[in-house]
Amino acid sequence: MIKTYLKIAWRSLKKNKLVSFINILGLALGIATCLVISLYVIEEFSYDRFFANSERIFRVTLDAKIGEQTLSEASVMAPVAETFKEEIPEVEVSTRVLNLHSNTKIRIGEKVIRKGNTAFVDPNFFEVFDLPFTSGDPATALAKPNSVVLTQDQATALFGKENPINQAIKLEGIGHYSGQYIDLSGDYTVTGIIESIPENSHFDFAMLASMLGNPDAKNQSWLSGNYITYLLLDKGANTDQVEAKFPALTKKYMEDQMKQGLGVGFDEFFEKGNHVYLKLQALTDIHLNNQFSGKGDFEAGGDMQTVLIYCAIAVFMLLIACINFMNLSTAGASQRAKEIGVRKVMGSGKQDLVFQFLLEALIAVCIAMVLGLLLAKLALPFFNDFADKSLSLTFLFQPTFLLSLFALILLVTLMAGGYPAFFLSAFQPIESLKKKITRSNRSGLRSSLVVFQFSVSVVLIIGTLVVSQQMKYIQNKDLGYDKEQLIVLRDAGLLGEHLDVFKDKLKADPRVQNLTISAYIPSGPTDTNSQNLVTDASTSSTLRMIQYGIDEEYIPTLGMEIVAGRNFSLDLGSEENNIIINQTAVKKLGIEDDPIGQVFEKRTDNQGGRAEVKIVGVVKDFVAKSLREPIKPLMMVYNPYYSLILKAEKSELQPLLADMEQTWNGFNSGEAFHYAFLDELYNETYIQEAKMGSFLTVLSLMTIFVACLGLFGLVTFTAEQRIKEIGIRKVLGSTVNQIVGMLAKDFIKLVGISLIIAFPASYFFMDMWLENFAYHIDIAWWIYVLAAGITLLIAFGTVCLRSVKAALMNPVDSLKSE
Q1: In what order do the strands lie in the sheet with 644-648?
Q2: Confidence (pLDDT) at 53
Q3: In 566-699, which ranges are E strands?
Q4: How are beta strands 168-172 and 186-194 bridged, if at all?
Q5: Is 713 left (phi over 0), alpha (psi -120 to 50) or beta?
Q6: Of 20, 254, 25, 212, which Cα lies nearest the Cα of 125?
């Protein structure tokens, strides 16, 4: 019996080649999209879940407000870890990480290598994070100062096949600021080797050095710190109850220091509208929460909003493909009416016909699944480049995912074939044999499905247009500085004592228009610093400001504008106690009338130390980070160091760079010459948005294509039902254009309804997306008009493709007796 059903199903698919091809192609595109996005989503949600205790590990974060400034940091004060372990019974282990350098300089004898991220961690780090050791003992590997654990990849790069245990390496140029620079360079002994950290981890360290070698680790200040702190809680611990203990402990240890450093008690600090809270963040939530990106996070991380958008697109794409199958199957109902009637007369029950049609759908879905896997395999390399991932279809062959694929096949079969199966099997044998299959109110369902398809398509088209316009806005926005023709040598400081000579040679080059030394770059990798200006000498009122260390050439090199006062100039003497602030800082300080010459105090330490500074200039507001954030108060101090930024004519850039590299290599420093263009660094800041725009464009084209297949099915169904009406109209003198217009009118109405639904939905979603930017476009009316025009044009073309064929049919053929 099954064999007979299979034969009939296969013959039916072969008989209706065009419909079968469209059905299978639509399903294959939907399945391929769903598979690729599923791999991406699963990988995004898998971050850090490979740790045995991942559900019990939490990161301590900082949420503070001082005056009008808010702070959200992934790093906290040095003593928090030990204090929480001692004071909170539910804390089983606490450990800290100090992330130092992303491309560490390593010396082994005469060999110098730059490779790998270095972090300093507490000796008990491996009690929290069970990273597998291939050599060494995790309990004692970091028990001594100047000990270091390497990943397997790092060990191979440094020592080849030689045993690295107890080998000495020298780490150079590593350290951190904590009031003053703490140099951690020196000789380290390799005491352990771990397997390379998986890609789906929120940290990617190549070397883990013992925190015991960091003197600042014993710092007892509760007013500042940059230590990433993790807690391993007891099994069954209530995180809300644990977090509820933080405020009392914060007050206990912070109050005296706050009185000394800020001149105000803890309660008074809160009464003034300020606050400081320590909070818990689940380890498994870190990757997809970009709240702390650039604020202590080890990597940029993912974005939950983007993942949810991709999930929705995958679901809608599959739904649209299933809707097509339903519409095209019911569209050909009249062609199978006699078959159904004969089979019912011969004794087939409704359940037999339902099984038959579901089996046909299952065969089509299985073929589509195979084709979808092939399409996914072809698309995956492009998607990996696009998403900066290394996804592989091999994951699909794991037992769990194979079961999911099987479930997906059954689900799609029921979704795509369920309605047609019950619809076709419900035909009465007499009407079927007479081919009197009339339209029913079920055509309303088919129309609704087409409206749904086009609504989704229009939302994606509008989304694509909005993202495109926002990216154009980002490119053309007045940033307050000139990003063109600027070369950034971020690591020029690696030349050490040769930096000044290198700078002088560049200054003497006539192709170099301007040159400045500063490690503070408006876009891309940059040093970060902040400072508090005291706004009321008798209280703790302060204005937290971004602080740039620059020289006198910084402002002219970047094309910034001094709107009041002057630039730094060593011709006028020392600039040590002078500052330049931006316009936002002027407003926040309330000195719009006469900012020049105003004297404020800045904090110099956490023990209440202060120093006077005088405002000598005001610079026009410029975007110091990205357009996602509003421009914040900023002050510039005279403190040039490390990086070089230079401006040159566009035609001279490549020859100049070649000569610069030759000069650099002439110093024999052992450091590679690296450069970047500031405009490219700026564009990379918005790479996620650019990728989303490209992704939406591709998906918009796919969904509108698949939706048009569904529309084609509905036109086919309607033309078959109205074939006699069309014949009569032609006999009575109707032209092809009139008949096409008659058929198209109803379908254009459906597209019009989809526009009415899609416009408010797209506005809601895209307005929510634009809220991620402090500076963004307003969604213009013409975007909706253009989206409507594109959709109507494509839909009308699809309708015409089928309706013209019906209108050209000979009326004799459509009116002859059956």
Answers
A1: 512-517, 644-648, 486-489, 676-677
A2: 92
A3: 578-582, 599-603, 610-619, 634-638, 644-648, 676-677
A4: antiparallel
A5: alpha
A6: 212
Helix (H, G, I), strand (E, B), or coil: what is residue 111?
Answer: strand
List of the chain residues with pLDDT < 50: 432-433, 439-441, 538-539, 817-818
What's the rounded Cα separation, in Å, for the pair 145 and 26? 62
CB within 8 Å of 312: residues ≥ 6 apart:
none
Pairing between β-strand 542-550 and β-strand 634-638 as defined by DSSP bridges: parallel
Q: Angle at Cα 522 formed by Cα 519 and Cα 524, nearest 5°?
A: 80
User: Given this model, what pLDDT does residue 124 score?
Assistant: 95
For residue 9, what are the contacts with CB-CB under 8 A and spacing of at least 6? Answer: 356, 359, 360, 363
- For the entire predicted model, the pTM comes to 0.80
Length of the chain in terms of residues written = 818
Bridge partners of 63, per DSSP, are 72, 277
Helix (H, G, I), strand (E, B) or coil at 309: helix
Query: What does residue 156 show for φ and ψ, rounded to 5 degrees?
Result: -65, -40
Interval 360-386: pLDDT, tens? 778 888 888 889 889 888 888 888 887
C-alpha span between 456 and 33 (Å, rounded): 15
Rounded to whole angstroms, how far apart are CA atoms 71 and 695?
33
The Cα–Cα gap between 15 and 360 comes to: 12
Query: Is 532 in contact with 589 (CB distance < 8 Å)?
Result: no
CB 75 within 8 A of CB 226: yes
pLDDT of residue 445: 67
Nearest to 579 by CA among 638, 493, 494: 638
CA distance 661 to 683: 24
Which residues, listed in sequence order, are joined to residue 506 by a DSSP beta bridge?
Answer: none
Question: Would you say 289 and 295 are in contact if contact means Cβ atoms under 8 Å apart?
Answer: no
Strands 228-233 and 57-66: antiparallel
In this structure, are residues 802 and 719 in contact, taking their beta carbons and an 8 Å threshold? yes
- pLDDT, position 817: 47
Q: What is the C-alpha separation between 498 and 249, in angstroms, rounded?
A: 50
Looking at residue 230, its pLDDT comes to: 96
| pLDDT score, position 414 | 77
Q: 408-411 contacts: CB < 8 A, separation 24 or more?
A: 408/31, 408/34, 408/369, 409/362, 409/365, 409/366, 409/369
Strand partners, 57: 232
Looking up tokens 């996914």 gives 376
